[in-house]
Amino acid sequence: MNILFVCLGNICRSPSAEGVMRQRLEQAGLAAQVALDSAGTAAWHQGKPVDPRTRLAAQRRGYDLSLLRGRQVVVEDFHRFELILAMDANNLRDLQAMCPAHAPAEVDLYLRRYGLQPHEVPDPYYGGEEGFEQVLDLLEEAADRLLADIRGRL
Ligand code: 4NP
């Protein structure tokens, strides 16, 4: 199974989603069966490491995001990934606009799909430190539900 997490810049929310989920899969012994990646709808941070504020907040919870690098979503992603999970409604709209007809990917809003409130992961980029903690709180909750979903599909 292949899952892609998508936000705007691919330096805060979607790499965090990827890092949290990778740890959940490793703990569940399912890392070899599910491939994860993340990407941004914008190209601004292509090739750049994860935002240092995000990296630090993640590191404090035991997630290592140091090897991840930003990349932009490409049309081929809709053929490579079965599940593409957007962090907010703008990301979802942008993904839907570029999704080719008949592409196999299921594109959805991550938190809403798993019955969580709020439905969107708020963009922490221009805010304070608490925003980075909130992102991780939401993504940890979502990861547990995504893991349950994956177990049902494998
Ligand atoms: P992300 O956060 O979409 O969670 O990676 C952002 C990163 C960068 C910018 C905006 C949001 N930016 O404007 O550069």
List keywords for this structure.
154 residues; binds 4-nitrophenyl phosphate; protein phosphatase; four-stranded parallel beta sheet; 6 helices; alpha/beta; Rossmann fold
Q: State the share of residues found in helices, binned by percent.
A: 40-55%
* Mean pLDDT across every amino acid position: 98
What do we call the CATH homologous superfamily? Response regulator
User: What spatial form do the alpha-carbon principal axes imply?
Assistant: globular
The domain count comes to 1
Structural class: alpha/beta
Proportion of strand residues: 5-15%
| Low-pLDDT segments, ≥5 res | none
Strands side by side in the biggest sheet: 2-1-3-4
Give the cofactors and ligands: 4-nitrophenyl phosphate
Order of helices and strands: EHEHHEHEHH
Radius of gyration: 14 Å
Major beta-sheet overview? 4 strands, parallel
At CATH level 2, the architecture is 3-Layer(aba) Sandwich
Supply the CATH class.
Answer: Alpha Beta
Question: What does this entry look like structurally?
Answer:
GO terms for molecular function: protein tyrosine phosphatase activity. Belongs to the low molecular weight phosphotyrosine protein phosphatase family. It comes from Pseudomonas fluvialis. α2 packs across α6. Helices cover 44% and strands 13% of the residues. 40% of the residues are buried. The mean pLDDT is 98. With 154 residues, the protein is an alpha/beta fold. The chain is globular and about 40 Å long. β1, α1 and β2 form a beta-alpha-beta unit. The chain has a single domain, classed as 3-Layer(aba) Sandwich (Rossmann fold), CATH 3.40.50.2300. The protein has 6 helices and 4 strands, in the order βαβααβαβαα. Bound molecules: 4-nitrophenyl phosphate. The site of 4-nitrophenyl phosphate (4NP) has 11 residues, from loops. 4-nitrophenyl phosphate (4NP) binds next to loops.
